[in-house]
Amino acid sequence: MAKGKTATVFFCQNCGYESTKWLGQCPGCREWNTFVEETIDKTELKNTGNGAKRDRREASEPCVLSEIAIREENKTLTGIKELDRVLGGGIVQGSLTLVGGDPGIGKSTLLLQVCHNLSTAGHKVLYISGEESKVQIKMRADRLGAFSEHMLLLCETNLDIISEVIRKSKPEVVIIDSIQTMYNENVSAAPGSVSQVRESTGILLQLAKGLGISIFIVGHVTKEGTVAGPRVLEHMVDTVLYFEGDRHASYRILRGVKNRFGSTNEIGVFEMRETGLAEVKNPSEYMLNGRPENASGSVVACTMEGTRPLLIELQALVCHSNFGIPRRQTTGTDFNRVNLLMAVLEKRSGVQLSSCDAYVNITGGIKIQEPAIDLGIVLAGAYLYGPATGLYCILGMILKSTVADSAIESINLRKVCTVVTSNPQPVRDFIVNDLHLSATMEQAEGAYTHDEKWVLTTVLTRGQAQKLRLHVRGLDDHAFITIVNSSEIVGKGFRAI
Cα dist. 244→86, 202, 267, 290, 398 in Å? Predict the structure, then answer.
C-alpha cells in the first residue's frame, strides 16, 4: 500500500493562518514571527476544515427564534460563589469554557473541586485527564473529600475514544485536562501543535453544542501569559478564564477575559490551602493584610475590577541610577504607562526623573490596567525627594497651572471703569478727545442725598484707567470711581460676538 504523501505547512500561532511557506509577518493578524512549521498529509488538507469532520448522523433543523425558551435552570451553580461570579451566575448548558494559567497555579485543583460539588449535588460529571494517571488524580481528590458515584474518571488522549465515551455516558459537565495533550488521528501533527489544538477544540465545540454538554478545557500558557497554541482558540470558546498570581504565594486571582453569558473582567479571589482553593470573600482585606503603616513608597488605591471595588497596595521605589541608562521595572501594571507618568511628573512638577531607576509593584499578584491607579503610582514614587518635596511638587503643579491661566487671561485683560459724578461733561470730553474711546452715560439719582448724578461706564487698558482716575480726581473731589478687571469683553472693537 502506498504511503500517503506529506506536505509542510506553516501556521500562525496567533490567528491560525495557513501558508505553504514561512512568512515574517502574518497576513491575517499582521503579527511578526508567529509562524511555526508542521508536517501533515496532503489528503488532510482536503478533508479537514476549521474544526473536525462534521458529524452527519443527525440533521439539523431550523427553529423559530421566538419559540426558544430561556430558563434559569439552564445555569448550574458550581457551589463556589467566586467562580459563579466570574462565569456570570453559573455554568451555562452547552457552553465551552477555556481555563488558562501557569503550571502549578491551581487550574486542575479548582476544576476538581467543581466536579466534587456538582457530583455531590447529583450532576453527572466526567473528568478526562491526559497528563495524570488515575492514582495521581485520586490522591488529589482525597484532599477534597469523598466523591459520589456521579463522578466519572477517564485517562485518555485520543479524541475519537473520548467522543464515543461522552456520547455513551452522556454527562452534564466534562473536564478536559489539558487541550495540549489531546490529538485527532486525522491530523498527522504532534499533540499540542497549532493544527491539533485547533481541530481538537473544534470537535469539543461540536459535542458541547450538539449534545448540550458543558465542557471545561484546560490550556497551558506561554511565557507571555497567553494560551499556548493558536489565538483562534480563544475565539472559538464561549468563556475564557485566566488564573493570575504568584504560584509561590497562597492567593490566586481568577479573571474572566471573555464571557458570552456575563460581564467581562470580573475577578474571583482564592486562597490555596491543603484542602484546595478556598474563597476570599473580602479581597480588599487580604490585599492590605500585612501592609506596614507609615512606610515610604507605599500607597493604598481604589480600583474597579468588573463590578467589584477593590483596595490595593501600590509600592514604588525611585532612586538615582548609577549607570548611563536608568532601569524601569513593573509588576502588575503596564510598563509603558509608568514611563508616561514619570515623564508627565518631570515636565509638570520639575522633578528630575530621567536619570532615576524606578520599580513599581502591585501587591497580591494582581494585574491592574485601570487608570484610577495613576495617582497612586505618582504619589508612591514621590518619596524620592521625601514627603515634603513630593507635596511641594504637587503644589508647584497647581501654581504653574494658576500662573499659566493668569498669563493667558492677562493678554485680553481690560479695566471696566464706572464714574459717578455731578459734572459729567469734562469726564466725557477727556474719554472721547484724549483717550479716543467712547462711554455710556446714564442719568441717576443719589439714594441718600437725592441729588442728580451721572454714571459713565467705559472699558480701558491699565494705563488709560490710571489717567482717567487722576483726571477725575482733579475735576470733582466728590466723584465716585469703581474699576473692575475683565478678560471677556465682547463687542465692536473687542472680541467678536
Answer: 14, 27, 10, 20, 39
Q: Can you read off the three cell numbers belonging to residue 196?
A: 491539533
Q: What DSSP designation does 334 have?
A: -
Of 217, 221, 303, 306, residue with least CA distance to 255:
306
What is the total count of domains within the chain? 4
Domain range holding 12?
Answer: 1-48
Span 145-156, pLDDT tens digits:
888 889 999 999
Tell me the backbone φ, ψ of residue 412, rounded to 5 degrees: -105, 15
User: What does the pLDDT read at residue 214?
Assistant: 94
Q: Domain containing 429 — which CATH number?
A: 3.30.70.120
Residue 95 and residue 208 in contact, taking contact as beta carbons nearer than 8 Å: yes
Q: Which residues pair with 271 in a beta bridge?
A: 251, 278
Question: In angstroms, rounded to a whole number, what is the distance separating the alpha carbons of residues 236 and 234?
Answer: 6
Q: Is 94 helix (H, G, I), strand (E, B) or coil?
A: coil
pLDDT higher at 188 or 266 = 266
In this structure, what DSSP letter does residue 49 have? Answer: B
Grid cell, residue 480, equals 465716585
Does the residue 55 lie in any domain? no
Task: Supply the pTM of this predicted model.
Answer: 0.65
Strand blocks (E) in 372-436: 414-421
